[in-house]
Every structure is written in structure tokens, then in C-alpha cells.
Amino acid sequence: MISLVEVQETNKMIREMNLDVRTITMGISLMDCAHPDMATFNRNVYDKITRSAEKLVKTGEDLERQFGVPIVNKRISVTPISIAAGAVKTDSYVPVAEALDRAAKEVGVNFIGGFSALVQKGCTTGDRILIDSIPEALAVTERVCASVNVGSSRNGINMDAVKLMGDIIIQTAERTKDRDSIGCAKLVVFCNAVEDNPFMAGAFHGVGERECVINVGVSGPGVIKRALEEVRGQDFETLCETIKRTAFKVTRVGQLVAQEASKRMGVPFGIIDLSLAPTPLIGDSIAEIFQVMGLEEAGAPGTTAALAILNDNVKKGGVMASSYVGGLSGAFIPVSEDHGMIQAVQRGALTLEKLEAMTCVCSVGLDMIAIPGSTSKETIAGIIADEAAIGMVNNKTTAVRLIPVIGKEVGEMVEFGGLLGYAPVMAVNPFSCAGFVNRGGRIPAPIHSFKN
């Protein structure tokens, strides 16, 4: 049992260190909504989501008041639409995205994820329809998030899909250029996507999940930073132990919220995702943790080692606090959502290439990075391929959420608002990779994938 004494111990973290439950995400299976008629399918989807998540937002608000823990977002993830809508006779899933958006607005959630396709080994007809629908779907909806998994350690990398996603990202940027190409902030390309991720834009409800579950994502960069300030200059063992102990306390808060939410809604508890997901607020930054560790700026020599320490010990502390830690748990490094990262880019300490190196040891990958709107689709595909290769070879989840901002060039600032923050447009390597990405086919899985 989790005692109220433990909750009270976290009051200072909440008041002074920006501790929050970043999201309660309800995962909902849409497999029983299948129907060949689009209108019938959409009605089934809308009815099931609004019925299942009817009490989600109110429950989150009640828990905030009872425990004093901010719950920043209430979200929904659904079965990948390319699977759930596979029987629908159509050439576009945009109407499905609109139905998802209406349902999300009706129940009051911030985002709904699952406009997704899993194409690591090849595309079905439904997968291709979904991918082709993404630009318009993200332009005409407000709360729908999309994701495509293009590779895995078991199957290799589908380079046809990688090439296609380079084009889809450009199309999405063009369709939302009047809003600084914000559609791309709701689109992520994965390698080794996980089925129980509560964080957007990559959340979907995997086919191996239950009918309906509650997943909770906890965030606490400010808490880790404050704890490390108390051991400034001490050795690495002390540094690691401090991170583990602090991560344990943060995870216990998430465990309490998850258990209570599950109980009150009568929905099984899935996982706790302990992710150090930053915000644009000063004091709630991964980059500022690096500075407390002894680096002048994020991007300085030693940054990748510092991130590896942080990521590993957050996970070690989390798994001691809950039997069901999952999702993407670890440290996120989104540029636009982290005040310290933004500052490092502006000062010239942090480049796209250094960020790529850091993704070898972080939770996810290249996240919320604004690049020039003139960047070619082949260059974007090349960046996706690089990141997917890191995930495939290292047997970890990696992702790319790039935002080619139409009409903006290197050094200009882009405002996305809210948790999405703001970002300087970063430089991209100008040399072409077109001959490489245009080869087509699939990059085979690495030799260590044969584990049977």
C-alpha cells in the first residue's frame, strides 16, 4: 500500500520543483468497431470512445484536488487505425480522424493518439491509406496525433516507408504552414514502437493490450535537478544513487494516481511511464540537469555520458517503485519543450548531429526539432533512417519528430504554444542523401536479432 505520508513527502516537490503527473492516458481497443461502411465504423468508434472515457477527465480533476498533484493532461490512445479500420471500403481515413477528434472533444481530453500504422516489414492496403491520409487528417483536426513505425530490431527498416514518410512530413508541413507547420508536431516516426506508451504524439493501444487500460506518465526533471544540487561536485556513485532515490519517490506518486484512477473508473491499471519529460518552464529542464552535473551547456563534451547516467538511473529507481513500469521510461530531449535545450541551441552548443548522438542513450529520439522549411524530403528521410538504425541496432525505441517550418530558415524562432513550447530553427546538413534513400527495399535486421 502507498501511504498518505509518502504523498505528503512529495508536497515540496510539487510546490517548488514542478513535479507533476504529465498524463493519464486511457487505452481503448477499437477492434470490435470493425465494419465495411465508413459511417457505421465511425459511429462505432465515436460511441465506444465516449462511453469508455466518459469519466476520464473528471476522475483526473478529482484526483488533482484530493492529492494536490497536478495532472497536466488527460489523453486517449486507440488501436492503430490502419488495423481497426482495415475492413472499411475507402481510399481515405480522414473521416476516421475527424470522428476521433469529435470524440476527443466530447470527453474533454487534450489529445487522442492512434492514427497510426505499423509498417516495419511492409505496408498493407490499410497502412498505405492511413499514411496517405496523414497530412489532411492532421490539418483538419485539433487533437488527433499520428505515428508510423518503420523499423524494428527483429524486422529491419522498411526504407520504402522511410522514403514515403519524408514526403508525408513535408506535405503535413505545407498543409499547416499558416500555423508554423504545427501538424508535424503531432506526427512521429518510430523504430521499435511500444504498445503501452502514454505520451503523445506516439501513443497507440497495441493489439496485445487489454480491452481498456489506464496508463500514467510521470514527469520530474525539476525534482531530479533539485536533488542533484544537494550533491554538487560529489562522485558518480553518489550522483547515481541520488537519481535512483529521487526517481523512486516520483514513481510512487504516479503509482498512487494510477491505482486510484483505475479503481474509480473500473478500468485495469496498465503501466507507469516514468519519463523526465521537460516543459518550457525554467527549472523543469533536462539541459539544466546536465549543468548541475557539471556541464557548461547541453551539447558540451560529456553530454552523452551525462544523459546515459540520467536515463539508466531513472529506470533503476522507477522499477523499484512499481512492478509495472513501461512505456518509454527514461529521459526525453525535445528541443522546443526544454528551456535549457533551446538556450543551448541558441548559444551554438547543441547541434542536430550532437542530438543524434544523444539519442543512442535517451528514451526516444530526435524530438520536437524545428528545421528549415526548405529541407528536402530526401534529407528528412535520411534523418529518419539514421535514427531508425540507432534503434534497430541497439534494440531500443527511437523516434523522429521533425518540424520543417515552411517559410522559416536557420536561426528564426517558432512559437507552438503550451507544452509544445517554442524553438529556434536548427541547421541541417546540406549534402544530399537522395541516392541512398531512393534505393528502396528493406534494410535487413542485424545479426543479433536471431534470438530463438
TrEMBL record:
InterPro entries for the chain: UPF0210 (IPR007841)
Domain of life per record: Bacteria
PANTHER family from the UniProt entry: UPF0210 PROTEIN MJ1665, UPF0210 PROTEIN SPR0218
HAMAP family from the UniProt entry: UPF0210
Family, as annotated: Belongs to the UPF0210 family.
Quaternary structure and interacting proteins, as annotated: Homodimer.
Name of the protein this chain belongs to: UPF0210 protein B9T62_19620
